[in-house]
Design a protein that fits this description.
Number of strands: 0
Oligomer: single chain
Largest sheet: none
Distance between the termini: 26 Å
Order of helices and strands: HHHHHHHHHH
Strand content: under 5%
Length: 251
Amino acid sequence: MTGFYTLFYKEWLRFWKVSVQTVLAPVLTAMLYLLVFAHTLRGHVEAYPGIGYTTFLVPGLAMMAVLQNAFANSSSSLMQSKMQGNIVFVLLPPLSHREFFLAYLLAAVARGLLVGAGVFAATIAFVDVPVAHPVWAVAYALAGSAVMGTLGIIAGLQADKVDQLSAFQNFIVLPLTFLSGVFYSIHSLPPFWQTLSHFNPIFYMIDGFRYGFFGQADVSPWLSLTIVTSSFLALSLLTLSLIRSGYKLRR
């Protein structure tokens, strides 16, 4: 337990010591998205009946910030430790593969939730956002950040160079995030793209999180939660297996 706490605390300090870059900068990015999209589309788009486009955007942008930062935290930490060679100081202590996994995962979840909370704190002064089902919103924030934190650990284990990690982020995570319904409801899409959206797991995270605020969603929140938690369990089993085998760690 002491080893787990020490590794978690080290990962916490790793992003908190540079919080201007890791927390404040993503909040500013989300605010710029809100400013640009709300200004250009608020008079033309009504995603849900009775809900303005600016209000509709806020939960999506907050969840996008949660997901991207949870992924960035675990992936960049592992990849940098491998490149600099200091991963050996994490591998030498008698930590189990579960403690290793949980420490990186919880630090990623913590950073994602901090950034998401920062986005809300920055937007509530300008936009009135209702909270219809707060328990659903918290459940999706936790489950979504856990999925992306776990995916970040896999990417960090796989990547040996910065460009390999950038390719993972730019060609997989970023397109899936932007095409998940952050800026629109999938009911506004043609049938082909609606069908394709249902194969995107991030769509269920965004849609379920938004249900927690508006009580409306494109699909059932129970279906979304089942898919998100199943994704987390599958990715966790894979990640634990990789860490236990020492995949790209012990060489």
